Amino acid sequence: MPAIPSLGGLRGRGGNRAKAAAPRPIPVPLSAYVVDCAVYVEGKRLPGRWTHSEAIKEVRKRHAGFVWIGLHEPDAEQIQGVADTFGLHELAVEDALEAHQRPKLERYDDTLFMVVKTVRYVEHESPTTANEIVETGELMVFLGRDFVITVRHGNHSGLARLRRDLDDDPERLALGPAAVVHAIADHVVDHYLEVTSRIESDIDEIEAQVFAPRSLVSAEQIYLMKREVLELRRAVMPLGTPVSRLAEGYTRLVPDEVRSYFRDVADHLATVSERVAAFDELLSTLVDATVAKISLQQNTDMRKITSWAAIITVPTMGAGIYGMNFDYMPELHWKFGYPLAVGVIFAICLLLYRIFRKNGWL
């Protein structure tokens, strides 16, 4: 019979019970985060499935083409494998892991790192009842001499359709990985234009209701719309400087042929910025108009309450005087005293009503 271990054998030093080893997390393969990985040579996509290491080896063996890898919310361990293969800077990798970055463009040695905010218009029945109008996400782009890596945060900013369109346009991809960066920036800014057009329609609807008689639009709802426009502004405004720098020859990674395209993106972005600034000013004006309208309505209500209180005071005063039970009061024992008192009270109330009505209080 085997010996049963004593209780002391189950304890560590100092009498502490031995702790069970924490379970190690199950490693997730990089393929779970890779949306697509492709090799492009002379603007044409090479057939087959590629890993990130095999793709860059193929490009550098050919001394032509580039790699485009798309990642969706990778963790630190998985993106580190890509960073080691492509030589990405650790600060840029750290930023790519963290969402809620502001749009920016940074250069690390021979690699560019760009952050852009993506936006999506949230469908709703009416802007006067909606709780959310704009939803934002993020795209981080690494641009190198022979590669472009996109890291996506959020579920609405997919680039699958854009990739398919570029696959059908080899002349454009033949310009190199910078053409992909331009296509991404152009794609994002086009969505800005679409979202601002939808928001403009919402603001027009709110404006019509604010100045309509007896409208039910509250200042809180307009302020909520203003907050949504502010979120859009945070996505749009900081992007102007990175796009302008790419259009002005900030780096040799962007050839002259692609820089001219970035100028077009900068023009569209300027249009969006002007719209967003106008939205902010208009919503501020609508908030002030709504508050003034509420104050005016409250003053009107107070006038009505005061007018009716003055009218009701007359019969109250008469009832109070004749209810004091004195024997010697005017016309107290006269047969027509009661109808006379009621008639006088009614006449005074009618006179007050006509005065208040003439002055617009009722």
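[next item in queue]
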Amino acid sequence: MNWAVIPARGGSKRVPRKNIRSFCGKPMIAWVIEALHKAGCFADIAVSTDSEEIADVARSYGVTVPFMRPDDLSDDMTGTTDVIAHAVAWARGQGREYDSVTCAYATAPFLRPEDVLKALSKLSEEGRDFVFPVTAFPAPIERAIRLNDRGDVSMDRPDHFATRSQDLAPVYHDAGQFYVGKPEAWLQKRKLFSEASGALVLPGWRVQDIDTEDDWHRAELMFRALGYDEN
């Protein structure tokens, strides 16, 4: 059996109430919940939150809020691994055992059911601790430029000044959408970014972090352009 957990803290500062703020006509978290439902592979979908308001919205879209997250796991310094480890420990305390546990971010409207299914297959077939989506940086990081306080330019990697971009290997970053993992990997708080993890490569046009108002506006434009709001 597979279990999905959506971490959704109530104290977002940069974009207030972003987990349940209206995004293309629905609370942000609703798009994620609906994608997980469409995947059709989860015995249960739960939300880990410290907010009764978020809990009420989540329940209205057909998921459970089996516990309220404790205060010591609800500040902006708490990592994802700690939150999911807490959820898995709670589930085991209730006698619930799962083959995999998926952490899906509440602010990942570009999450697609088919990506979750592919990641779950990789987790099982390749024997990984975790599998998660990544996307390539849009430009070679070896050609990065830094500016000091005066605006002076310097290369981060001057040894690559004359290297052609096509001769540089692509480098990837976490897409910030979801992680599928083995329950023991979550409980033992193993590293997400390690050789024991596998990656699902996504195109850049399906990835957008939402940390600022500018990000939010860009994400809505992308979401509508892709027709996701019509599904």
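[queue empty]
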